[in-house]
Structures are given as C-alpha cells and as structure tokens.
Amino acid sequence: MIDPTSLAWAIISLTSMSIAAYVLNLYIKIQHIFKRRHHQRKVSVQELYIYPIKSCGEIRLSNSAKVTPIGFEHDRILQVVSRVDTKDSPLDPDWSFCTPREKRCEKLFHVQPKLIIDESNTTTTLELSSKHVDNSFKLRLEEVLSRFGSPVTMPMYCKTMGWASAMLEDCGYNVGKWLEDATGITGCRLVSIGKHYSRVVKVNPKQGDEVPMIHHEHAGVLSSSPPWTSLADEAPFLLTTRSSLEDLNKRLGKGKQVDMRRFRPNIVIDGLQPWEEDSLKRIRIGAVEFHVWQRCGRCTMTTIDRDTLERCGEPLATLGNFRERENGQRNFGMHLIPARPWELKQARVFVGDEVEILEYDEERRAEWIRIFGKSS
After folding, report:
1. Helix (H) or strand (E) holding 178
2. Within 13 Å of residue 32, how many CA atoms lie on the same side as its CB?
3. Assign residue 348 a region: left if phi > 0, alpha if psi is -120 to 50, beta otherwise?
4. What's the whole-model pTM score?
5. In this structure, what are the phi and psi dihedrals at residue 116, rounded to the nearest 5 degrees?
6. Pairing mode, if any, of strands 59-61 and 237-241?
7. Are 225 and 213 in contact (CB under 8 A)?
8. How far is CA 364 from CA 142, 237, 272, in A?
9. How sure is the predictor about 85, in pLDDT bands with cuts at 50, 70 and 90?
C-alpha cells in the first residue's frame, strides 16, 4: 500500500523538477536570443582614407591600408609650410604648417593627391593636381626618401599642430613652386617626415584623457613609452561612424547636410548606434588591436565646403547644441592608437573587416546612455 505522504512528496518533487526544467529551458532560449542578436549586430569597416599631404585632399582606398605605428602607410607624411611676413604677423622664427583654417591657405583642400605604384611594386609616385593650375606635379616618394639627410635637401625646423617644432625634410624648389601656384601661398615649401623626425602623442588639456602608454618587452626587460604619430593633429588614426554622421545630418536638416570629408577620418565603420563610438575603449580590426583613446574635438575646418570653399557656421554650431562637453570641445570621431605597434609588421586593415569590441570605457558609456538614452 502506497503511503499518501510519500506519494504527495513524490508529486511535489516531480512538479518541482518540471518547473525547474521549464525555467532552465526558458533561460537557455533567452540566452540564445540575446547571443543571436549580438552576433547579428555586425560592426565593420566601410571606408578607408589617407591624406598624404596634411590639410590637402584625401585618397579613398578601395581595398586595404597598411598599418604602421604612426598611422596608415603614406598618411600625413608631408605638409605644406610657409613663413608669414605681414604687417599683422611678424616673421616666424621657424617654418609653420599651413592650414585651411586660415583663408589664405584654403586652396590646400583642392590639392588632390594620387598614388601611382608601378607593376613591380617598388616605386611609388605621388601625383598632385589642382583645378587652380593646368599642370600636375609628380613626386617619386622613394627619391625623396633617398635624399633625406643629403646636401640636396636640408632638414628644416617646422611648427606642427600644437605649435611644437619638428625636424622635417624639404622636398625641393620645384614642388614648392607648383604648390605656390596652386594655392596662392607665397614662398611655401613641401616638407616630409624623414630620419630626423620624432613626434609623440601628448595629452590634449582640453580633453584631459591620459595617453595610453605602449609597453615593450625586449630580452625579458619590460619598458614603456608614449605612442608616436605622423603629422596628424593629435593621434595616428581617426575613426568615425556612418550612424553618427546620419544623426548629425538629420539635426542639420535639408540643404545643410554635410559629407564625411568634413571630418577627415582614416577609418569609417558601420553597425554602431549614433555616437556609441564614444563608449569604446579597446577594439580589434582584423589582426590589429587599437586603444580608443579620446574624442576628437572639432574646429572651423569642418565649416568649409570642400568644393566651393565657402564658409558657414555648420556643422560646428549644431554639434555645439548636443556634442559640446564642459571642456568646450565639440566632438565627432575617436582617436585610435595601435596597442602593440611592434607586432604590426605587414598588418593591414581591409574594407569589410569586422570590428570586434574588446572593452568599453564604463564612464564614457554611462555618459552616452545618459545623454542618448540607448544601450545595445
């Protein structure tokens, strides 16, 4: 005869086990749904750009870009410099970088570079053209590099962004004269990174983000150093997103919309929510890991139409309405620094590469969620 008490406990146990199994199965399904949604959100590289001459036209790369410790290969390795000698500005003791922020230099935007690589892949020619002159100018980069430190071209102290001086190499009279004709910048010269060049990333006091140190190990000895950069304003790489540009253009309204040229990125990605790039701390693109260092504060260069050279207050005014932080910086895009530059060798970033998010900056992420009310 079955004991009623034992039967009751058996029923309760079976019922509990069924409920537990149901809950466990439901939990697994929910987890599967979240994982599937996560995998469905593919963040990937859509566009790649280099700017061989700082402040001049861009080259959009159709396939890939080689990664170096100071930026993409051929990115911002040259800049136009001049001496300023007017009633309003005394003669500079050094040559100074030219920027379209100054109206006298705005035609730099119309200097269009083109890289021509021969079939043997041993010679790279930089061809320059502009709608303001009839002829183009060709400069063999290997020839320029081979002259570094020779009597043909002398090192020159030149002011770079941030007004620090760097030792750069003069590329010669002929290209300087062509640039003077194309831009109207009297007495300008083209200078390049050479063996004397050294420039490290520094803290931007207006942003306040600490520069991530690069750690090295050699013969079992650990050391660290600040990262290096090209002639770019602040960092080796600049990342922007299509979604943030789309959101900005919605706010600007019809007839005032801008394209990505206003922001001069190296890497354009898609798959994030608008402005979510703020919250990233470490990412991997292909085989390359990057520190997502700081937000990029924007200046009046963004307000210059790249085709007509007309100036207006946008998009800077609209960015000021919702992207200006307490430090006064109106941000668009993020500066990237390679995490392990000594491992790069022949590393490349390809159009279509997946962007893997390795770590979020929790403080910036909380700020992004608070302002935009979103989380992924």
Report:
1. helix 173-183
2. 6
3. beta
4. 0.85
5. -120, 115
6. unpaired
7. yes
8. 43, 20, 15
9. low
Number of H helices, E strands in the chain: 6, 22
What are 224's two structure tokens? 């660290």
Among candidates 217, 274, 213, which has minimal Cα distance to 242?
Answer: 274
Please check whether residue 80 is in contact with residue 188, taking contact to mean a CB–CB distance below 8 angstroms. yes
Query: How many angstroms separate the CA atoms of 179 and 302, rounded?
Result: 23
Whether residue 67 contacts residue 288, with contact meaning beta carbons closer than 8 Å, is answered with yes
Max CA distance (Å), the chain = 115
Report which secondary-structure segment, H or E, holds 358.
strand 355-360
User: What residue has token string 């890939």?
Assistant: 64
Q: Degrees (nearest 5) of the Cα angle 309, 136, 167?
A: 80
What is the three-class DSSP state of 97? Answer: strand
Report pLDDT digits (tens) over 192-240: 998 888 899 999 999 999 999 987 777 777 788 899 999 999 999 999 9
- The rounded distance, in Å, linking the Cα atoms of 75 and 53 is 7
Confidence of residue 148 (pLDDT cuts 50, 70, 90): very low
